[in-house]
Amino acid sequence: MVTHRQEHTAHWIQYFADRGHGDARPLAAGVEGAVYRLGDGIVGKVWSGRRPVRVELMRRVYEDIAREARSLPFATPEILGVEEHEGVLVTYERELGGVPLRADSAVVAPGRELAGQETGALLTVLRGLAAVPGTEAMRRLAVQGDDRPLWEGHARFPDALADLVRRAVRRHGDLLAAHVPDLAGIVRRTVDSLRALPEGGPVSVVHGDLVPPNIHVDDTGAPTAVLDFGFFTTAGDPAFEAAVTAAVWDMYGPYAEPHTVALTRLFAAEFGYAPDTLVLYQRAYALATYDLFASGSDGGDGHFRWCAGLLRRGALTRPR
After folding, report:
1. Are 63 and 78 in contact (CB under 8 A)?
2. Residue-wise pLDDT tens digits, 206-249
3. Residue 152 to residues 48, 65, 166: CA-CA distances in angstroms?
4. Exposed, middle or buried by CB within 10 Å (0-12, 13-18, 19+), for 65?
5. Does domain 99-311 have CATH number 2.120.10.30?
6. Three-state SS across 69-136?
7. Best CA proximity match to 278, nearest among 266, 291, 289
8. DSSP-derived pairing of the beta strands 204-206 and 79-85
9. Among candidates 38, 137, 56, which has minimal Cα distance to 94?
10. Is the CATH number of domain 10-94 3.30.200?
């Protein structure tokens, strides 16, 4: 399976050592970059996978989140400094406490039963992020793979998401159509259903990538930090956050589909979200991200296959 994680290198360890961080050590790596522990509570993130557009805007978003997060039971990132080396962006951030809740399902497959400690941590994080209001800076962000701010020209999140779906399918829709029967019909029903969602819903921060490594916990399993905002970060419906989290929490394990169903039902019951709306948002997410790691390929990428599989599941109904 292709994971597209960035690699740690001796070059970057030496880079940080030359800048006074002689104890620099690899800490973590993801799609967007690799993170190094520098000491004194500071980490350096090398954005070799994707250069964040308008890093000062992302810095403002981090500040908006952190301001509200002071009242939450977990910490969020803060950018302390920014520099560029050989065309690669480097950010310095405060190190967040705790350890990853568990490895990503692409690395270690979870077991059949969802652990109560994990679902409890997810409920805490979702409840906390839903209390952080969406801000103008968040609305100005573009999600990965897109060419404009998500909210540009829109007053409602569902309408902005509907147009994102249309733009994303235009990128490599022929590739997706080869793996998803009646793709045009799915896109049409998804867009129509998004536009039909009720007016006046809440708008809060959306992380958009709450996979297990992005939630840190203490030795009791309580969340201590949520990190790596940026992949699909925006202002939006907290139900979208819950829907995507239910879908991506276990993408590649042998019980991935029943885990998604169980988490979708749990979040609908806990937060009062309509189950059909959560399923709708999951399909919109798949349509918006299917090609982020597979553009121009034969569709063999793991994330592409996951998106295509989600889109092939059952009929899409209009949200109630």
Report:
1. yes
2. 999 999 999 999 999 999 999 989 889 999 999 999 999 999 99
3. 27, 21, 14
4. buried
5. no
6. HCCCCCECCCEEEEEEECCEEEEEEECCCCEECCCCCCCCCCCCCCCHHHHHHHHHHHHHHHCCECCH
7. 266
8. unpaired
9. 38
10. yes
Amino acid code (one letter) for 132: V
* Residue 82 amino acid letter: V
Q: Which distant-in-sequence residues (6+ apart) come within 8 Å of 299 by Cβ?
A: 175, 176, 178, 179, 305, 308
Amino acid type, 173:
G
From the list 54, 56, 58, 14, the residue with the least C-alpha distance to 36 is 14
Total Cβ atoms within 10 A of residue 298: 10
Q: Do 10-94 and 99-311 share a fold?
A: no
pTM beyond 0.85: the answer is yes
- For 15, the 3-state DSSP assignment is helix
pLDDT of residue 29: 80
Cα angle 285-98-208, degrees, rounded to a multiple of 5: 10
Average pLDDT, the chain: 91
Strand partners, 83: 90
Residue 76 in contact with residue 66, Cβ under 8 Å?
Answer: yes
List the domain boundaries for the chain: 10-94, 99-311
Q: What is the pLDDT of residues 109-144, one digit of tens each?
A: 999 999 999 999 999 999 999 999 999 999 999 998
Q: Concatenate the DSSP letters of all residues of 166-193 into one string.
A: HHHHHHHHHHHHTTSTTHHHHHHHHHHH
